[in-house]
Amino acid sequence: MQADIDFSHYLRDCGAGLVHLDLAVEGINCAGCMAKIERNLSSIPDVTSARVNLTDSRLALEWKAGTLDPALFVTRLAELGYKAHPFQRDAAEMREAQRSQGLLRRLGVAAFAAMNVMMLSIPVWSGIGSDMLPEQRDFFHWLSALIVLPAAAYSAQPFFASAWTALRSRGVNMDVPISIGIFLALAISVVETVNHAEHAYFDAAIMLIAFLLAGRYLDQNMRRRTRAFAGNLAALKAETATKFVSPTEIRTVPAAAIKPNDMVLLRPGERCAVDGNVIEGRSEVDQSLITGETLPVTATPGSAVFAGTLVRSGTLRVRVAAASGDTLLAELTRLLDQALQARSRYLRLAERASRLYAPVVHATAFLTMLGWLAYGATFHDSIVTAIAVLIITCPCALGLAIPAVQTVASGALFGSGVLLNAGDAIERIAEVDRVIFDKTGTLTLPELDVANLASIPTETVKLAGRLALSSRHPVAAAVARAAGASAPLPDIAEEPGQGVHGTWQGQSIRLGRPAFCNADDLANEILCQDPEASVVAFSHGETRFVFAVRQQMRPDAAEVIAALERRGIAVEIASGDREPAVRLAAGTLGIHEWRAEVSPVDKIARIEELARQGCKVLMVGDGLNDAPALAAAHASMSPVTATHVSQAVADAVFLGERLAPVLTAVRVSRKALRLMRQNLWLAVIYNVVAVPVAILGVVTPLIAAAAMSGSSVLVMLNALRARAKEAV
Amino acid sequence: MEVLVYLVPLALALGFVGLLAFLWSLRSGQYDDLDGAAWRAIADDEPANDHS
Lengths: 728, 52
Known about the structure:
A: Calcium-transporting ATPase, cytoplasmic domain N, B: mainly alpha
């Protein structure tokens, strides 16, 4: 099926008659896979390079232009047992990767400078007071200046830039005291060196930069990795669309290659990958991913369809309004913008800490100077002591305290299937005391499943599954999936809008509408018990059965909700679906508070009402109708099957069929927030001990360097505790 | 102590060479796949065995 797709959109000409293709590959997890894939694909003639990236689960291929069909690689990989799909790095991912590289380069420069300066500083420290001549000491100080000044000017730029941005918008962030500290330390060191003084702080300044850059790099690298992984997931969804290349001719192309005003064809069983308007045709469509409503609606010429719509019965011809992920209903866009604005007002823990920190530190340094002046010290000595206070308090530990914990915690979350979208997601998820779940696709699984499998004999299920393989209707597909069928029955005909039929072992066999199989009474029985189910009947000779097909609850939904409530987190449901369906779900899961037929506006209103009462709400939802609420809530999560927009605005995306990642996210985040606070307190304690020493004016460069690295290492070690596992 | 005239520039030059080597390795993409690089060192001699 993959082989029919037109991959030309993804090919990149890389000169010298070669073309380049990037593939996201599922299932590369060891060195063996890597060797197997590379060996197999490089053995294809005309392939010049096949290289696996194990960190990102990707494969880069290059071959001579015009010789090979890209689909060949996908087929080859499928034969080897790997699912692969081409992808294109999106702009956001490229930016993260560039930032990550830039930080690593600056970190390298700062670290090499720090090493070389230490080589000069240690002789000075050990030589003071013994046999080192003042001329030699000055020479070493000048050499240090020569190394550190250019290195600092280059590698500290991210801090200077960020501090400047904050100051220009009349704010303060952590980078302001950092920049002031670095700048003053370097300035005083130069002045002291010129004056042949005993102490210079070049080593402390460059070490501080190196430590802080290490923190930044860790943070950035985790973000880059998450972004790359999200890119793979999007590629592996392998969204395709059937595009009209001429009024009568169609071709299957990747959804990314579709442009506005293209015409696409939607067939039964297909999920629409684009937003658009129906031009021709009539079909039942399942909009549950968009509205939360599980009952199908009818699409006719003029109706709008959105990415995520599942076509159930007929064929539709659709004009694309905008490429996938770009547009929404105007109303939703407006709500979304408002909600996102409100969220950007959230103050991160680091910002709150630096708002307190910067004035205190600067005031302390200033008072130290005044104090020494009043005590009768010279102006020069007073200033040197004040700057020593600034250097010793320079928030090395503070700058690492939060990113280090965030990196370790997001690594732990990554391992348990939660991808973080926002840098401050951990802090906000940790603070929640109420969770609002959407029902459709969030508490329930997005795929349809057979609910009454246990009451039907296995043999019948298997036979019905094989018969169902001949139909593209999603309800039939669910039966085939539940039966695990892989061998279709021979000579089966499809009766449009009714079902499929044929002959098996000399008897007529049918699958389809209850009336088509003469099983209306059985179907009505099931529908009375479970009005939300879709029914599909099966008959073979005189045997008749009816399958109830519906979205099943996630297997661990009840446990997770109980566990959340045990942790003191209130749980409620806000769904766009109709009342009986929501009541049933709430009853099964033991949730007392639920709302049905909630519009996107009402969802936001509910969240705002709770916010006014002081609740911190975690919204978990997947549909287009949840997107504004996801953006408005204090924190938000989406399953990976959610619409593009919901995934983009959610703070975190979780993988898999289980709901447990929601609980894990809350648990890990709470622990991480505790560790962040601990780390901030460690930094405070360090300052309480070190600052008096600095105020007394006895801080030598050796003490400054030791204190700085000591506190950084302590904070790092404490951050690593976020990794420790605990029972759910 | 005249030996410092040679030793200090030599040490600094070596440090500089190290930095250049790092920048070169960064530019040639050697930090793009740290997990894979760890395995490549030992994978070449192994037969291509199936893990999946």
